[in-house]
């Protein structure tokens, strides 16, 4: 009796999952091991992006021979960066210029980059379909749960 109830519950649970959204992105800066060029994923963890329709971002900033690469979810960068391009679809774009950034600031410390103009070139690359941008849009009934249900039914018929 309890086996039948558990079996029915497992099957209902397995078939009740219609879809799930999760985008896994690397979040690191090129000063961390493995995050620069060449990219080595062995040293890094991936994080789940917090918003439903999020995008993975790779920012490459250059100043002469210096190159800084930042990888993150777009939702975690929106509050920090003001130079995100308006078009965030798949592909690479130059950083937007924020003409209002740093106005009405009296700054005597030249090392503070209040106008965000230290880097000569900044490029944003957006991805949500690439190899390192894991996008699981749809999860049909869980194969694991269906297998457990089939095994339970087989065991019940034998007993």
What are the salient characteristics of this protein?
159 residues; alpha+beta; five-stranded antiparallel β-sheet; three-stranded antiparallel β-sheet; 3 helices; elongated
Give the SSE layout.
Elements lengths: L1 H15 L5 E5 L1 E2 L16 E3 L7 E8 L2 E8 H4 L13 E4 L26 E7 L6 E3 L6 H16 L1
Antiparallel strand pairs: 1-3, 1-8, 2-5, 4-5, 4-7, 6-7
Helix pairs in contact: 1-3
Notes on the protein architecture:
The protein has 159 residues and is an alpha+beta fold. The protein has one domain. Helix content is 22%, strand content 25%. It has helices at 2-16, 74-77, 143-158; strands spanning 22-26, 28-29, 46-48, 56-63, 66-73, 91-94, 121-127, 134-136. The strands form two sheets. The chain has a five-stranded antiparallel beta sheet. The chain has a three-stranded antiparallel beta sheet with strand order 3-1-8, with no helix packed on it. Strand 4 and strand 5 (66-73) form a beta hairpin. The protein is elongated. The two termini are 12 Å apart. The relative contact order is 0.22. Mean pLDDT is 75; it is low at 134-142.
Describe what is shown at a glance.
The protein has 159 residues and is α+β, with helices and mostly antiparallel strands. It has three helices and eight strands, in the order αβββββαβββα.
